[in-house]
Amino acid sequence: MNILLTGGAGYIGSHTALSLIEKGNSVSIIDNLTTGDKKLIPNKAKYYKCDIADQKLIQKIISDNNFNLVIHFAGLTRVDESIRYPDKYDYNNFEKSKIFFESCINNKIKNIIFSSTASVYGDNNSSYIKETENLKPMNPYAKSKLKIEEYLIQKAKEKKISYIILRYFNVAGADIKNRSGLISKNSSNLVKVLCEVATNKRDKITINGNDYKTKDGTAIRDFIHVSDIADMHYVVAKFMLKETFSDVYNCGYGSGYSVKEVIKEMEKILTKKLKVDIGPRRENDIPISIANADKFKKKFNWKPKFNNLNYILTTALDWEKKLK
Ligand SMILES: NC(=O)c1ccc[n+]([C@@H]2O[C@H](COP(=O)([O-])OP(=O)(O)OC[C@H]3O[C@@H](n4cnc5c(N)ncnc54)[C@H](O)[C@@H]3O)[C@@H](O)[C@H]2O)c1
After folding, report:
1. Is 167's C-beta closer than 6 angstroms to any atom of ligand 1?
2. Which segments in the chain show pLDDT lower than 70?
3. How far apart are CA 30 and CA 48, in angstroms?
4. How do residues 131-182 score in pLDDT, each as one tens digit?
5. Is 166 in the same domain as 131?
6. Which residues pair with 221 in a beta bridge?
7. What DSSP designation does 118 have?
8. For the chain, which has fewer Cβ within 10 Å, the N-terminal or C-terminal residue?
């Protein structure tokens, strides 16, 4: 396969690029490095420093290559920032993606895989969320993602593209060979923060709310290893080139851990206690977010390789030590 991948200097994009290249595919990356880092880009990928809305350059990149499909990871991803700057998220994630997809369509790329998020479901009161669940995005980040989903669905109705929308749950962990991982500064990502506490870059972890109606009062999330997410893209890409179809899939393991359980597992790995305190709930945070992950497994006959919290935390920690 010859793949155009946006956001390949970022966390999930770089892991996916590594995985595709390892399996013998060609990958060209476009990224403007707003949040990404050049050192995450695999050596064997072609790299273009380019904004997704730079139609002229993108047209040239597409006409210089012969891409079978595009995987669109590029975007801003911080919920807290999106609440403060909703227009920035609408512009970068929605408006610019639309311009980018128009460049793809005008230059005859028809197969699109798009990174969406479980946060499009919002608070559904449902423990194992199916793809058919109502969509109630609760922040500007999630809203911007849902608007792109709707745009892609419309373009497929017009027979201009085929899309696969992948709604990721909580992506965590790092490449086992330590070639990539999460770099994000001032992250609010639980696993990232824990790794920073474990490597003395922060002095404590704050639990955002311990009064949820869950088994230990802390929020529960479906953590999926980033290398499994990368593999899901490979599987989907291969399939899309054989069969013309469009659909939406959850990407999770279908099981969840509470914040306290994740902290406990990290303490087990470190064989020491970490400094933990309790803070207020975050705005619009939901108590439980777990995927019903059956649809993807069934359609693609896929099994995860890294469904293990200890493995997720160990790989993330190894990466954090390397960053030090
Ligand atoms: N990390 C998660 O848990 C998670 C969960 C659900 C969905 N997602 C989605 O997955 C995708 C990748 O997320 P990530 O965690 O790797 O984020 P990331 O910030 O590490 O990567 C995003 C990349 O996109 C690039 N980018 C942003 N805007 C751009 C633009 N206008 N033009 C060109 N490049 C641009 C950034 O420089 C960065 O390299 C995002 O679309 C995100 O919404 C992530």
Report:
1. no
2. 125
3. 5
4. 999 999 999 999 999 999 999 999 999 999 999 999 999 999 999 999 999 9
5. yes
6. 257, 289
7. G
8. C
Closest CA to 53 of 82, 94, 81, 17: 94
What's the rounded Cα separation, in Å, for the pair 190 and 187?
8
Amino acid at 138: M
Q: What is the residue-averaged pLDDT of the chain?
A: 96
Cβ 7 under 6 angstroms from ligand 1: yes
User: What Rg, from alpha-carbon coordinates, does the chain have?
Assistant: 19
Beta bridge partners of 168: 117, 251
125: containing domain: 2-172+223-251
Using CA atoms, how far apart are residues 97 and 188, in angstroms rounded to an integer? 25
Burial class (CB in 10 A: 0-12, 13-18, 19+), 247: middle
Q: Which residues are CB-contacts of 312 (< 8 A; sequence separation ≥ 6)?
A: 172, 173, 191, 223, 225, 306
> Which residues are tagged catalytic?
141
210, part of any domain:
yes
* Residue among 4, 5, 35, 82 to mutate when testing ligand 1 (max atoms within 8 A of CB): 35
Q: How many CB atoms lie within 10 A of CB 72?
A: 24
- For residue 298, the surrounding DSSP H or E stretch is helix 294-300
pLDDT score of 285: 86
Could you identify the atom of ligand 1 that is nearest to the CA of residue 119? 6
The domain total for the chain is 2
Residue 89 beta carbon below 6 angstroms from any ligand 1 atom: no
Residue 301 resides in a domain: no
pTM of the predicted structure, to 2 decimals: 0.97
Among protein residues, the one with the nearest Cα to ligand 1's atom 20 is: 10
Whether 159 and 49 have beta carbons less than 8 Å apart is answered as no
Neighbours of 274 (CB within 10 A): 16
